[in-house]
Each structure stands twice: as C-alpha cells, then as structure tokens.
Automatic annotation (TrEMBL):
Known catalytic reactions: 2-formamido-N(1)-(5-O-phospho-beta-D-ribosyl)acetamidine + ATP = 5-amino-1-(5-phospho-beta-D-ribosyl)imidazole + ADP + phosphate + H(+)
Protein name: Phosphoribosylformylglycinamidine cyclo-ligase
Span of domain PurM-like N-terminal: 51-166
Keyword presence, Ligase: yes
GO MF annotation terms: ATP binding; phosphoribosylamine-glycine ligase activity; phosphoribosylformylglycinamidine cyclo-ligase activity
Source species of the chain: Flexivirga aerilata
Amino acid sequence: MPDTPQTTYADAGVDVEAGDRAVELMKASVRRATRPEVLGGLGGFAGLFDASVLGRMAHPVLATSTDGVGTKVAIAQAMDVHDTIGFDLVGMVVDDIVVCGAEPLFMTDYIATGKVVPERIAAIVGGIARACEQAGVALVGGETAEHPGLLEPGEYDVAGAATGVVERADLLTPELVQPGDVVLGVASSGLHANGFSLVRRVIADAGWRLDRDVPEFGRTLGEELLTPTRVYAADLLRLVRTVPVHALSHVTGGGLAANLARVLPSGTTAVLDRASWTPPAVFSVIGDLGNVPQADLERTLNVGVGFAVVLPADQVDAALEVLSDCELPAWVLGEVRRTDQVDGAAAEVVTGAKGVDAGGAQLIGVHPA
C-alpha cells in the first residue's frame, strides 16, 4: 500500500493554537465583565453563577433572550474594525430582557469564523465584555468556532444569550397599560443592529464606498454605520425601580410601531406623533439615497427611537428626570388610547407583529424639517 501523506487538523484549516492565543488576549477584558455571583474563571466547560441570590426573592421569574447582530458584521469586516460589534450584540440581547422588568444577570457568546485571528477575536470579545460591564451583566463563557470552507478567512458571525430575573410581582406585562398612559421615546445612538440588509443594498446600489465622507454625518459612511448600539439595560432598570413604569419596548427589527404594539393590551392603540422628534441624519440619508418609502423605512429601522416607555401621565416629569440623569435623551412621543377612539383612516394602525395578539400603534404627523 503506497504511503499516504498525513493530514492534520491544521491542514484542514483549524488552528487550535490560534484559538488558545485568542483566549489569552481576551482574558483581561472578560475578567472585568463579572458580578459577585460568578464562580470559577474563564475556560471551564460551563459558566457558573451562584443562584442562591434568588432565594432572597419572594417569587423569582427567570427571563432569557438570544440574538445576533445580523449583517452589520459585514460592515465591521469591510472596515476591519471589530471592537464595536460587541456593543451591538449585548444591546440586542440584554435590552430585550429588560423589557419585562428583569435584571440581566449573565451572558454567553458564540463566534463562528473562517479563520481564527487571535487579535480579531480578542477585539470582538473585548467589545462584548465592555458592553456587559456597562450593563452590569457577567460574561460567564463563550465559544469560538473555526469553520474553514464554510466561511471565508475574514468572515465571522456572532450570537449571544443571556439570562435575567425579576420578582413575579414586578413583571411588566401589557395588562398594566391603561388608556391615557403616555409614551416616551428614548433616543437611539443610530441604526443600532437592525435593517442592515436594506442599508447595505441602498449604499451598494448608489455606489457609495465606506470611506466616503458624508457631510451630514461629519465623518465617513463606514464610521457612521458602525456606531455601536446604545446599551440601555442598567439605566432602564434604574428607571423602573424609581418610577411606576407600565411597559417598555425595545425598538429592534420591525420598527417602532410594531415593537410597541407587542407590549400593549388588546383594545388599545398608541398614537405617536412624528412631529415630536427629528431622526438622526443617517435615516434621512439612507431613505433619500435609496428612495425608500417612509413606511418601509419605519418598519425596518428604529428611526431614532431605541426604546419606548409607557407610564401614567402623572409620572412623566419624574421619568424624564431619571432619564436625563442617565444622559439618555427622551421626550413625550404620544399616548395610549382605546382603539375604538383612534382614527384608523388617518394612518395605518400596526398590529399583530411577531404573531402577538396585542394592541396597536399608529404613527401620525411629519418630522420637523
């Protein structure tokens, strides 16, 4: 039998030593993303979290969420900038947990790549760790997988999952919302991490390069698109612990109206006035550049509203003060009405998003020039 050349794992495109080097580079940043309840260190088969803290709660309810950052990773890869995508990932995951009033406790991440470049992996995880630290969430573990032949050497994707907890009596549910409640808008930092398939199509069709200087942004197109997602978790927890909030809505895929409708009870509709805010320039630039219909823009992007807060009218001033102290720009966006008191002929009422049988939301008016 003729001699057969040896084939190693490295020959197949997987560099185990590079993975170990990536772990060494990320250790310092991950150590900072912790909480007192975390047991053990980096590198175990499972992340450990001391759940005895839940014993101090009357009726603890666990909340969990998982997400990724979509095709925004293509912008990061094209720009060769990888330390901001972690904020997008953490924001997409932990801020969903806050919607029900829960405190996010710990998070894990997963990175799949065509080739492990230790410095690139460490930059991604470093961003995740910094965002977790900002949110008060422990990063208790993760996985980096090398997929040669499936992904190109410079390609990667990221995903994450988190778990939180809330007292049963403190859960934010649609049943708390009442007609007459006020809706506050909390500003986004930009596009966040939704709708990038539309954004990338628009700029590709227009022939715009990522290094193009855009006067409306005061920087390059790529720099604007990579603006990291604002992470709201810690600040919104402070809000709900200070003011009797009835509902929160994280404005992600589907846009403002669809996501707000999900947290309202059937028979109610939030009427939101576009005249109450001016979206950041990136939304008008993308809309104008691609001649994107307003309805499509609003059901794809956050148009400047990262979160909506629903609360009693007599709590508005107190809530705005808390949000101001947190350096979160916020304003009165609209109000909740009985659906039978809403003029459905004036504008579309969005209902049924994500298959949820809940309330509705309606956008009226025009943004200030």
